[in-house]
Design brief:
286 residues, alpha/beta, D-Maltodextrin-Binding Protein, domain 2, 5-stranded mixed sheet, 10 strands, 21% strand
């Protein structure tokens, strides 16, 4: 049996992986797939892919594109969630900041450099016409680190997925000043080159299984109630999230899509130069 390690954030986007693992759908194909949570997000997963700690990762599009350009020996095999991610822009409940424009010279908490919270802070700054070179960052590791930094005054604002942080807003730990959607599909599936070279067919089976699950995910009976309980969310928030979230329909990542995303990333100063998009992706359906 082939051992494969997959990682992702412990958030509602990845519940389809829990379902397929619980149903032992991978073992039916002689694949021992093991899941690992990465609360630190994409920056942490990029590091794990580089070290071989995981073989497959469900990562933010902008983060893995930047990291593959910078030498991560992995490829994007497909989009996982094709709708944008909604990033909430948060300050501490007692903060004096009232509007997003007030944050121009403030310190932004990020999980780590190269993470979504880092790269989207750059996108948000660009959207608001701020000088990106003057952004000040405080590395906090993960969501809990962001809570601590804003509560203790070590940082001024923190960007994290809107619905994951909604309970923190409801309980007056965070105050949300606004949202910043990603200008591209939010999550992709990345696989280490070594695994793609040696276990191409097995990876293809894994992708087919997860795509089959996400295709019918919204139709699962009481899925809104299940997600609300598991992720400690209000049902109305889960219903809103489900209404705006679209998973991939099994299509591979195309060169045109990755090129369009790179063009935007260059425009936003998230990356300095583009790479040949063909070097960033692996078509599993040739």
């Amino acid at each position: 049996m082939l051992n494969l390690k997959v990682g992702g954030v412990p958030e509602h986007f990845n519940y389809p992986w829990y379902i397929t693992l619980k149903n032992k759908e991978y073992t039916k194909h002689n694949i021992n797939l093991r899941w690992k949570d990465y609360p630190g997000g994409t920056g942490e997963m990029c590091k794990a892919l580089r070290s071989g700690e995981v073989d497959i990762a469900i990562v933010l599009t902008e983060g893995i594109i930047k990291d593959i350009i910078n030498g991560n020996p992995s490829k994007i095999t497909q989009t996982y969630v094709k709708s944008p991610l909604i990033w909430g822009i948060h300050v501490g409940a007692k903060s004096n900041f009232k509007e997003i424009r007030d944050l121009e010279h403030a310190t932004v908490a990020i999980s780590r450099f190269g993470s979504g919270s880092h790269l989207m802070a750059i996108v948000n700054a660009h959207n608001n016409g701020w000088d990106i070179d003057k952004l000040k960052f405080k590395v906090v590791g993960n969501l809990q680190g962001g809570i601590d930094a804003l509560t203790n005054g070590e940082a001024d604002y923190f960007m994290w997925e809107h619905f994951t942080t909604k309970p923190l807003v409801d309980s007056n730990i965070f105050r949300r000043l606004g949202d910043c959607p990603t200008p591209w599909p939010c999550f992709v599936i990345a696989v280490r080159d070594e695994i793609l070279e040696n276990n191409f067919e097995e990876v293809k089976k894994v992708l087919n299984i997860i795509n089959s699950c996400t295709e019918d995910f919204k139709k699962i009976k009481n899925i809104d109630k299940t997600l609300a309980i598991r992720y400690e969310q209000q049902e109305k928030d889960i219903k809103e999230w489900l209404s705006i979230t679209e998973w991939n329909d099994g299509k591979p990542a195309s060169k045109n899509l990755i090129t369009r995303i790179q063009n935007k990333m260059v425009a936003f100063n998230v990356i300095e130069t583009k790479e040949d998009s063909g070097k960033l992706i692996k078509n599993m359906y040739i």
